[in-house]
Amino acid sequence: xxxxxxxxxxxxFTSIDAGLGVHLEVARDLGVSTAHLHAPRAASxxxxxxxxxxxxxEDFGIEVTCVFGGFEGESYVxxxxxKATVGLVPLATRDDRLRELFEIADFARxxxxxxxxxxxxxxxxxxxxxxxxxxxxxxxxxxxxxxxNNQALxxxxxxxxxxxxxxxxxxxxxxxxxxxFDPANMILYGVxxxxxxxxKLGRYVRSVHCKDATWSSxxxxxxxxxxxxxxxxxxFAAFLQTLGRIGYRGPLIIERxxxxxxERQKAEIGRAIELLAKLKQQLASKNKK
Length: 289
Description:
It is a single chain. By secondary structure, the protein is of the alpha/beta class. It is built from eleven helices and eleven strands. It has a single domain, classed as Divalent-metal-dependent TIM barrel enzymes (TIM Barrel, Alpha-Beta Barrel). Helices cover 46% and strands 17% of the residues. The strands form two sheets. An eight-stranded parallel β-barrel has the order 1-3-4-5-6-7-8-11. Strands 9-10 form a two-stranded antiparallel sheet. Helix 5 (91-110) packs parallel to helix 6 (130-148), helix 7 packs parallel to helix 9 (194-201) and helix 9 (194-201) packs parallel to helix 10. The longest helix is centred in the C-terminal third of the chain and has 27 residues, at 262-288.
């Protein structure tokens, strides 16, 4: 496990011109070496922009390991709105979003990034549901496009319990389909305790978001509340221990959805980096005893 811990660089979720990720300059100032990227708007997904962005990443000493798709019209204002607007589930926008996701994967390829991330949306819990079958087919097409780019597709946890996600992965039947595990989303959406879910999904987990949250008084009906890292209900010492048990070897990406105010981002995310570094050190020391 010690070697696995050594392979957990601490990074941040960042953005170029879209999303709530930190500015790239903030990531540089925080001294991180790795990041996940929210896909830029279509106008910025050009070969020239990719070259310019790659040059900035090289100058800052930052490696992007996953590019996350997001779409116009998505809203996270409340759980019913998420169900109606997010990901590939809404039928009215599905074809357009599939085409855009292919473009995002191609942009990630220009950046030499080998993983594309996605909130696929609220997958129906029953496999006999027609929408469930349609989303299986849609996800296969994304995986097939990504494999042509030598890329994996990482589905972010949150909108479904671990058992539903496991069945969905099996039904899609693609070797390049994996999970980006976000423990706070399990709490925010009220779909299950994060640590047992991580244990259950462990063999598919290829990336993680370190985010914290508190439970809603009506889990699954109303939102929980996102919190600064270490101030919510995710037990991060136990989270890291579980990552070690499942053999996780990727980065710890801090995701914090706060306004793009650089000084606030530096202060709060800087504290999160310190906390994760401390917990990593404690875990490594414990494992050596």
